[in-house]
Design a protein that fits this description.
2 copies of one chain form a homodimer.
Chain A lengths: L5 H4 L5 H7 L5 E12 L2 E9 L8 E2 L2 E3 L6 H13 L5 E8 L10 E9 L13 E8 L10 H18 L13 H12 L5 H11 L2 E8 L6 E6 L11
Chain A binds a DNA duplex through helix 6.
Chain lengths: 238, 238
DNA sequence: CCAAAAGTGTTGAGTATACACCCATGA
DNA sequence: TCATGGGTGTATACTCAACACTTTTGG
């Protein structure tokens, strides 16, 4: 590819033009869709932009990638600055590069999906933003840039990964009951699941280990489970 | 996100440093993995780099995205310049952003997957490259940058999409026999398929229409089929 | 009439779904 | 003892995989 010589090598592009262009290359940003389950709803964390032409609009936290920085490092850094989260599940979604997606400049955004197990884990909000808040997915406010598209993509990805990976472990506390797990699946997939069949299916995947503990409450105690691995595990379904 | 103010808003980064950084932002490139089936093998098109520290190494065709250019436009342009292809299936894979992936500069690459139905559709080779050639996937030469990783990702994506979309239509001529289709699946998936079961499965997906034509040859004539749609169609498997 | 590839059905195993009752606990 | 949620088994429909012979054509 020889990136450095590309402009010279491109047929039909004069040298004079190249010189001008050198400093008008697209920038790279990351934007992170952070999801958590709260009150039986999938929620996404949005920040309210303080500056620029989109000031006052809501968006996913993000920002420019620094020179020498890995993409996911950038995503983690922006997320930390906007939410105080030190560590969470993070996965790249897709890149969005419409030159008009940001009215001010050509910014290519690499979108990320992040998951945490409780909304209250989010504390601080960067001075970059005037506000930060959880919104129910499906009732998001009007979003800046092309973030509505990013949101739709993230929801689709979450749903599909729930079906063939152990990704759910990032939306639940370290130990949980089957009822909690089933509720999570029901909420995200948007349909009720048969308790017996659900339990069988999940156990067949062998993702869980039963803990020698029970959750005690007002009623019959419920066995607690944990995921065997917290790292992403894909279920083969040949 | 307010991209423009991000540097100022970042805590712990002094203003002096920011000024220096402004012109050292990562660049954006696209790299395209072009596949075709040839002689019962999956092949990928590689170009040999002429300039830069990786000169002499093979890589997927690609280059920097221009200001104001859509990502897929950039991928198509680079592909056109390197292969002469005017139009083909193109889909975004993933972005690769390791700052050390290119020894010369921090370049974030958005990888693309491209498919054509015959290797001989590739003609020209940009003066940017010293050579261009088809290689059997699985016997690729040593690749520049992180292109080996990109190659692995592209192969995985192709295999999985073959199973639940009509993507195969981009690897076949407009009309084809069931034997050709079955051969294609066998080659890409790397295993032999039962002819009767394969036919049943494919017909159940309802992706094909039977043409009122036959391919005549030395033996019994074979019915010709075509895909109903050439646009990407995802099969729901609830 | 022979070789070569095209085309076609059935059976059995395993998997997924639908469904209802008993259990353990705290109040 | 009752209300509440936790936990389990079975019968059936369906899907998927395995498998072999007949047909059509050109030479």
């Amino acid at each position: 590819m020889s990136y450095d010589n590309v402009a010279l090598a491109e047929p039909g592009v004069g040298r004079g033009r190249v010189a001008v262009r050198r400093h008008a290359r697209p920038k790279v940003a990351v934007d992170t869709v952070l999801f958590a389950i709260d009150q039986a709803r999938v929620k996404a964390y949005l920040v309210c932009l303080r500056w620029g032409p989109s000031a006052g609009k809501w968006a996913f936290p993000g920002g420019l990638v620094r020179d020498g920085e890995m993409l996911d490092e950038a995503a983690r850094r922006e997320l930390r600055e906007s939410t105080g989260l030190e560590d969470c599940y993070l996965e790249q979604l897709c890149s969005f590069g419409d030159p008009n997606r940001d009215p001010k400049a050509h910014v290519v955004s690499v979108a990320y999906l992040a998951l945490i197990d409780r909304t209250c884990a989010v504390h601080s909000c960067s001075p970059k933003y005037s506000n930060g808040q959880w919104f129910e997915v499906g009732h998001l406010p009007e979003l800046a840039y092309d973030h509505a598209e990013i949101a739709a993509y993230a929801v689709r990805r979450l749903k599909s990964k729930l079906e063939y990976t152990n990704i759910a472990c990032n939306l639940l506390p370290p130990s949980f009951t089957f009822a909690q797990l089933e509720e999570l699946y029901g909420i995200v997939l948007g349909r009720v699941l048969d308790r017996r069949n659900f339990r069988r299916r999940i156990l067949a995947m062998n993702l869980l280990k039963r803990l020698p503990l029970e959750r005690r409450g007002n009623h019959r105690p419920a066995a607690l489970y944990a995921f065997r691995q917290r790292s992403l595990q894909v279920i083969e379904m040949l």
